[in-house]
Amino acid sequence: MNRWIEIFIVSLKLGLTSFGGPVAHLGYFYEEYVKRRKWVGEKAYADLVALCQFLPGPASSQVGMGIGLVRGGVVGAIVSFIGFTLPSSILLILFAVLATEFDLTEAGFIHGLKLVAVAIVADAVLGMGTKLAVGPKRLFLMLLALAGVLLIAHPLAQVGVLLLAAVLGLFLFKDEPESGGGLNIRVPKWLSISALILFIVLLVVTPFLAANAAGNLQLTSIMYSAGALVFGGGHVVLPFLQQSLVPDFLTGDSFLAGYAAAQAVPGPLFTFATYLGTVVNGLMGGILATLAIFLPGFLLVLGVLPFWDRVRGNKQVGRMLIGVNAAVVGILLAALYDPIFTSSVKTGIDFLIVFGLFCLLRFYKQSPLRIVILGAVMGSIMGWF
Question: Is pTM, for the whole model, over 0.90?
Fold first, then answer.
């Protein structure tokens, strides 16, 4: 019980402070779960990130669920999801109710929080790079991943880069057998298989149930399909939801206003579904939409991670993981540049603030929470001038 409470409190803190989108969240997770609390090791965390990049659904939320699963079993995964998702869900319900009254997306503190995300991700990339991308071979794979993601503008580019790195790793690291550090997941085999079966059954059945229905059942079906079929995280789910909901359920302007709000609050971008559900069908619609879009990712984590933990002990798989982990650093570095840096750092003062926050985090060992508060205050001050 105490462990579950601890998981909830830590994930809630991350849900309140993790601004900047999915890749930034991985930086916050790295700082909190790996560096500070040491709930998982460096290589185990990189393995988990890599696996969640391959799965459909909200990758950063799935990483959080996976760490909750490691720390506190199935209940730990559930409370980790609740803690990380609750703040943004509540805020987006409020946004949906008050959307016509307020617009906080251009507030000064929001710009400051974007600068915080740059510093957080930069620190995470540096920390992971010094562990996972050291030496000519690993560095080559990191640069290959960086180039692939930056030059190929396609949602599946990340998956392709990771697959290529895995194949190259199998040949490049024959003389470097290496353990990635187990995740120690203890989930009964029957439960994992049941989760995978349920994932498929719901994906097939819900569209048929919703075909001749309306209201919450139809909304739930759309959200579950979005969570089950979309690779690449929050930004990639935008066209899927827009095609499914506009103009039958809400206007295009209302849709885009909600997406802007989802990027302005901390936590997972998939809580955009909370806003949409609330606009379409009130509070109950918001709750059902949230649960439906995250459920596929949870079922996949519960179903895949225990088997993955067994498979990864194979020597060939271990060599492939060396390559994948190096590529993960390159993918994070690409995301640090675009969209995080390019959408946040506009002036020399912005860069100066980012560098100062980075130094406080990296060299003065200040907590991410303090960095978030400081960044918000500095952004607000800048907004006054």
Answer: no
